[in-house]
Design a protein that fits this description.
The chain is mostly helical and 69 residues long. The chain is built from four helices and no strands. It is flat and about 50 Å long. The relative contact order is 0.07.
Length: 69
């Protein structure tokens, strides 16, 4: 049995932020928001599916939009 490598959450965060910065390069804040909303609308990731389930008929914006008010 091999040795288990420790999980480096800081390195993971840095990699994700670098990847997002590269993909968002040249976009306006509004374009970035639209892209994030579209990803949240169409993603099949379990966390995103949970997030979509938190929306209600009374407040269809979900937690992302509520946090901006």
């Amino acid at each position: 049995m091999g040795t288990k490598k420790p999980f480096d959450c800081i390195a993971m965060k840095d990699e994700i932020q670098a990847r997002l910065a590269k993909s968002w390069c040249g976009l306006t804040d509004e374009e970035i928001r639209d892209r994030v909303k579209e990803e949240l609308r169409t993603s099949k990731a379990s966390l995103v599916q949970w997030w979509r389930g938190t929306k209600t008929a009374e407040d269809p914006t979900g937690p992302l939009e509520r946090s901006r008010t």
